[in-house]
Amino acid sequence: MELHGYPLKAKFNQPRPPPPKALPATGTTPASHKSHIPSHPERCSLPWIPGSYYKAAALNPTLSPLTENFPGLPPTKIVPFISERPNGVFTRHSLDDWHRSNLTNYKESETTRHNAERLRADLTRTIKDVYQQAKRTQGESTKNLGERINDIEYWKSELCIELDAMIRETNSLADMQKRLERALADTEGPFQVAHKCLLNREKRMGIDLVNDDVEKQLVTEIKIIRSCRERLQQCLDTVNAQLMCNKEARQELEKDLADKQMGHHIDSKCYQLKNTSRGIHFFKGVERIDATVSVPETWARFTDNNIFRSQSARAASAKLRASTESLLMGTADEMWRQFSKVNDAFTSRITEIANAKSKIQTHLAKTRQEIFQLETKIQVIQKTIRDKEVQLKVAQTRLDERTRRPNVELCRDAAQLRLVEEVNEINETLRNLYQCLRASEDMLQMLVRSKGVLEHDLVVKNNSLFIDQERCMGMRKSYPSTVQILGYV
Asked: Over pLDDT 70: what percentage of the chain?
């Protein structure tokens, strides 16, 4: 007989379980052999350990109730258990023993709970003392960090004030340097500038080639500019040297301020750290490391020296700026008087070309507006044609479908007549729309040709205006211009 739910090897390799101490009655034996223990599917998934199974079975040789061991049997077929010793074979303790055992457990539990309560009270007091001491110590450290942060903030504010003043002074001196360089650049090659103006004016077309007295004034301008360039170059060398001093002082201030900011950030982070903060770890032996390089006195003296050095450099820079400003004013006045004479000849011609250009632009704008409106109207006509074609498709489809009516249903009714009339009306409308579309496209071509003529004329005028205003006057505005030399652009 093979047991269901167990591997086949168990039938050959393992011994049978020991017989129970109590057996059912003889009269019920045939009935017990008619059934066997049903298989349990959940046991098939467990690992099979025969030795463990029989060892566990040997620890409790008693039989369980038949209603639990034989769940598959109906209640009428369960064999009742009949004991041959009704005096209680399984009784091991008396009722008094049971009560005494319960009382002993109760007293032991009560004693244990009392000891645990005393221990908890002691632990609560100890923990409270530890928290108070830690809070006091941590508060003193936090207070010292706060005082240090206040000191850093004070020197940071002093550094920021001085650094802002130095930056403004350096920027002002740098602007002065740029103005000097621009003035020198504007005075370079006066002959080349005048020659370029003449060559550019030769590129004009037709009657726009006009002679003027610009060339006569350029010779005098050359002598004035050469004298100014020598004085400006000497001043520029002095400004460059002062800028280097200012940059060195500024770098010291920025480095000191960056260190202060980093220290302030670190101390602020330490000041805000709490026991519940993230990112706190153990660093064993860190309290034995001393990486300090200064004391509060030397720390404050270092910043004070940097500020004093910056103030001295600023004073020298301001004095140099004043002398440079005076030099620029003098040279600018000399060059501007000669420069204005050369530019007078360009003013009238530029005005005439600008007026002609303005009229052409007005006509061109109107033409472009008309083209835009006509193109919009063409798009509307095309959309109308598409809509009418869709309507024509619907009407013709209806007529085609109605030709498939059977027998006498092919009636020339009002619907049939109206559909035929609708198709004719749509065809006539489409013919008119296509005619309007062709007329609009022809008119659009005429407008485009007119626009091309205006644009060509505008290009000619733009060329003359560009030569006089952009190339010639552009060079004249940058050389030598009082506005540029004084740094106003």
From this structure: 75
Cα–Cα distance for residue pair 131/115, rounded to 1 Å: 24
Distance (Å, whole) CA 80 – CA 265:
86
Cα-Cα-Cα-Cα dihedral sign, residues 90, 95, 100, 103: positive
Distance between CA atoms of residues 218 and 479, nearest Å: 12
Q: Where are the beta strands (DSSP E) in 163-309?
A: none
**C-beta atoms surrounding 13 within 10 Å:** 9
Enter the tokens of residue 107: 């007293």
Q: Which amino acid is at 195?
A: H
Q: Yes or no: say if 187 and 446 are a contact pair by the CB < 8 Å rule.
A: no
Buried b (16+ CB within 10 A) or exposed e, 78-106: ebeeeeeeeeeeeeeeeeeeeeeeeeeee
Confidence tier at 252 by pLDDT (50, 70, 90): very high
Residues 6+ apart with CB under 8 A from 234: none
- The pLDDT tens digits of the residues spanning 390-425 come to 888 888 888 888 888 787 777 778 888 888 888 898
32 exposed, middle or buried (CB, 10 Å; 0-12, 13-18, 19+)?
Answer: middle
Amino acid residing at 86: P
Taking alpha carbons only, the member of 451, 438, 235, 463 closest to residue 357 is 463
Task: Report the C-alpha gap between 22 and 41 in whole angstroms.
Answer: 29
What region, left, alpha or beta, does residue 53 occupy, with left being phi > 0 and alpha being psi -120 to 50 degrees? alpha
Provide CB contacts within 8 A for 221, sequence distance 6+: 190, 335, 338, 339, 342
> Which residues lie closer than 8 Å to 468 by C-beta, 6 or more apart?
201, 204, 346, 349, 350, 353
Residue type, 281: H
Two tokens at 106? Answer: 């109760």
What is the rounded CA–CA span in Å between residue 165 and residue 184?
28
- Highest mean pLDDT among 194-203, 204-213, 254-263, 403-412 belongs to 254-263
Q: Residue written as tokens 């509307």?
A: 380
Of 207, 468, 463, 443, which is closest to residue 360 (Cα–Cα)? Answer: 463
Query: What pLDDT digit, counting tens, does each position of 350-378 carry?
Result: 788 789 888 888 998 998 899 999 889 88
CA angle 469, 474, 478 (to 5 degrees): 150
